[in-house]
Amino acid sequence: MTDGTSTEARLLRIEERLKDIENRLASNDPLDRRAASGWQTHAASDPIDPEPKQGSWPFGLKNWSSEDWLQRLGIALLLFGLAFLFKYSIDQGWLTPVVRIGTGIFLGCGLIVFGLRMIEARFTLARTLAGGGIACLYISIFAAFQLYHLISFEFAFAGMLLITLIAFALSLKRLGAPIAFIASIGGYATPFVLYTGNENLAGLLIYGGLISLIGCLVYLYRPWRSLLIVTVIGGWAILVAGYSSADFRSDNMNRDAALTLQYGVIWFWALYALVPLLSLRIRDKLDQAVFGLVISTPTLGMAFTEHLWEFPSIQWVGIWMGIAAIYAGIAFSLHRKSEALAWSHGLAAATLFTVGLWHLLSRDVLLLAIALEALALLDLARRFKADVPERIGHLLMAAVLYVLIMQLIEDAALTPPIINTKALTELAVIGICMLVAWRYSESGRSAYALVGHLTLLAWFYRELHPLANGQVFISVAWSVYGAGLLIAAFRLGHAGLRKLAMATLLLVVIKLFIVDLSRIAAIWRVLISLGLGGMFLLLSYYLPGMWRGKKEELKTTEPQMTKHVRNKI
Fold it and tell me: Element (H or E) spanning 261, and its range?
């Protein structure tokens, strides 16, 4: 009886443990959820190797004191020790080149086999040993070809490619993301470490495209962020190497080389553009790296293309904006399936459209166009209550304001003042900033209002300062602007705007005593003093009756005094 009860208790504990493992798999590995729909997943005995969750430390740095780091350091030190042993044996004449290469291959295969046999017992150690073995194989093939010239280029290239394919297979079978990362690095490094000086542009691009295709297919099956990042960077690096070998900046580059490079651009562009769309069909939740891929791919593709061909500027405008229209259409078609992916394509379209404007417009008009683009994004975000376009709009607006501030600091005023394209476009950008503060930004309203206010004061200063008696005109402009703000604040019942207006008028008074009294003629000092004094008295007389806000926010004794006098009468 006791034995039976003990058996039932053990079975209950085993069932609880299995449920716990299933919950972990469901939360950590999004691909396991596809098993119910017919997707083939790994065997139940295979270890799961999800990448770290968002916010975790990269490469396991948080667990630096665990035994995992001892394993990594151990395999690294073992490889260094073997390298030193090889060096010592070479110096002593003990080992011939064939023996050295054979020893390296034997060691690499042994580490891989030993690692595979340890998967069930010590998964992390097994993966570390297998990674070290793959590295040994890569180094051995490299040394056999480049250092000792024991094998031909074709044999070395085939060996490197075979090692890469085996490493990818091992990562999918049991060993996970780190092995796929090593395979991808080794695959992209192969044409560079085996370089002999003979340039084969088409072969380089075909090989790079093949490795990128394998990396993307592996990512679609196992969504490892590190693999996607290396695949994207490696693919574009192959393309950059192809451009460098073809000397794409030279006027003598033949048309065949340009077409070959353009085919390469189209391949990488199409491949990286399809990954997000296929990922959406495979799984519910997409990794953040996918959204970055959506935004960067068309921009890089067009940048490479523009370096290849010399077209008139107006044609490049049409090409950039045509691609932007395509991405905008994709964004519209995706808005019901994945809002985040739709807005990523929308941002890509906005980026392409902005570059097209850059080809078409001058710097000043371009600044206004980007500000209008930011305003449109903020309006869309407000209408559809979407966070992504709002963030993009604020980012664009911040960039525009930064450029505007630098222009106001560094650029001199043009003639005639105020009535010129540069000044008017800057004024329009400031107006857009004020509109964003008033209507589209609740959290950053004060910041937008303050930046717009200060830039407008700086704009007045830059435009009016070069004139004769420029300080007079600056004081007058600031006074009129401050009075207008104050009247608007009272009409709207806005306490914050009222404080900003009062600060502006106080700034004018400070400027009058510190700057104007020493730099303007006596008659102007008299006129400005009388004008400011009279304006302040008129404002103080008429404004209290205009206040439409809360009475407790209007700190004045005038209404109370009037009521007291009326009661007394």
Answer: helix 255-282
Least trusted range by pLDDT, from 62-66, 458-462, 551-555: 62-66
Distances (CA, A) of 291 to 8, 276, 324: 50, 8, 16
Q: Give per-residue pLDDT as tens, 214-273.
A: 999 999 999 999 999 999 999 999 999 988 876 544 455 578 888 999 999 999 999 999
Look-up of token digits 């192809």: 242
Q: Which two tokens stand for residue 407?
A: 């222009």
CB atoms within 10 A of CB 415: 9
* d(C-alpha 212, C-alpha 235), whole Å: 6
| pLDDT tens profile 306-330 | 988 888 889 999 999 999 999 999 9
Q: Is 41 exposed, middle or buried (0-12, 13-18, 19+ CB in 10 A)?
A: middle
**Residue for token digits 């192969």?**
190
Closest of 176, 209, 217 to residue 52, by C-alpha: 176
133: tokens are: 């073995």
Token pair of 362 as six digits = 């001058």
Q: How far apart are CA 404 and CA 452, in angstroms?
A: 10
Q: Where are the alpha helices (DSSP H) in 339-444?
A: 339-360, 363-384, 387-410, 421-435
Q: How many CB atoms lie within 10 A of CB 333?
A: 11
Tell me if 167 sits within 8 A of 179, measured CB to CB.
Answer: yes
Residues 6+ apart with CB under 8 A from 4: none
Cβ neighbours of 215 (radius 10 Å): 27
Token pair 């009661």: residue: 567
**Residue 478: exposure state from Cβ atoms within 10 A (0-12, 13-18, ≥19):** buried
Domain ranges in the chain are 66-178, 199-310, 468-560
User: Quick one: 323 exposed, middle or buried, by C-beta within 10 A (0-12, 13-18, 19+)?
Assistant: buried
Closest among 235, 236, 327 to 276, alpha carbons compared: 327
Phi, psi of 230 (to 5 degrees): -65, -40
Number of H helices, E strands in the chain: 21, 0
Q: Which two tokens mark 370? A: 């980007």
Is residue 331 within 8 A of residue 349, CB to CB? The reply is: yes
Q: State the number of CA atoms in the 13 A half-sphere of 318 facing the CB.
A: 5
- Residue 543's alpha-carbon distances to 364, 497, 502, 505, 553, in angstroms, are 39, 14, 13, 15, 14
Q: How many residues does the chain have?
A: 569
Q: What is the sign, positive or negative, of the torsion defined by CA atoms of 95, 99, 100, 106?
A: negative
And the tokens for 315?
A: 């044609």
| Nearest by Cα to 186 from 203, 157, 163 | 163
- What one-character-per-residue DSSP string does 305-358 give? HHHH----HHHHHHHHHHHHHHHHHHHHHHTTT-HHHHHHHHHHHHHHHHHHHH
Of the candidates 326, 221, 314, the residue with the CA atom closest to the CA atom of residue 270: 326
In angstroms, the CA 9 to CA 19 distance is: 15
From 417, 380, 377, select the one nearest 398 (Cα to Cα).
Answer: 377
Return the minimum-mean-pLDDT range out of 179-188, 217-226, 259-268, 356-365. 356-365
Helical segments of 436-469, H only: 445-464
DSSP conformation class of 419: S
